[in-house]
Design brief:
Elements (H helix, E strand, L loop, with lengths): L13 H20 L4 H4 L10 H20 L26 H20 L22 H27 L5
Helix pairs in contact: 1-5, 3-4, 3-5
Length: 171
């Protein structure tokens, strides 16, 4: 697995630092999935039952929901496409390849970057009715910090999965 490096400690612009860390976690997620067989990507090692491929699909839809659907106010469908409609749990169909889920993830990350590149951190989400408090939808800065914590949490969970699978730890 090639090493993914953390943003430099000389980076001090808040916007650049936040975006650099998001890209760091996006790349770390993909690096942790590299080298896993299709069976390993589709097998859970945790009591909660999610698989590494389901996690990748989940984070693709997290990007879609928060930035395209929520912040930009786009009409995208599906918005909750990683969840099984009957169980509500993350799912990847047998007909969905690992390559197609990876491509979906990369497409959603690219769409997120394009949206963010044309916005200021203080800009308010246009999808007002898509948040818990439509009268006070969040600013882009809040959304990006939310995404950052979501990635940090899930990449940490994937650390554990990978260690249980093959002993790989850390970066």
């Amino acid at each position: 697995m090639p090493l993914v490096t953390e943003p430099p400690d000389t980076l001090s612009d808040p916007r650049e630092l936040l975006l650099a860390y998001l890209d760091y976690y996006r790349a770390t997620l993909l690096r942790k999935l590299d080298g896993l067989s299709d069976d390993e990507l589709r097998t859970s090692r945790l009591p909660s039952g999610w698989t590494p491929l389901e996690l990748l699909k989940h984070l693709a839809f997290v990007e879609r929901r928060w930035l395209r659907w929520g912040f930009a106010g786009e009409n995208v469908d599906p918005v909750w496409g990683e969840s099984d409609p009957e169980t509500g749990k993350w799912s990847v169909g047998a007909d969905e390849s690992a390559e197609s889920i990876r491509a979906l993830f990369l497409e959603e990350c690219a769409a997120s970057r394009a949206i963010v590149s044309g916005a200021r951190l203080e800009d308010i989400a246009r999808g007002r009715d898509r948040f818990d408090s439509p009268a006070r939808p969040p600013a882009l800065s809040w959304i990006l910090f939310h995404l950052l914590q979501e990635y940090a949490r899930h990449v940490g969970q994937l650390d554990v999965v990978r260690e249980l699978l093959d002993g790989a730890t850390g970066e």
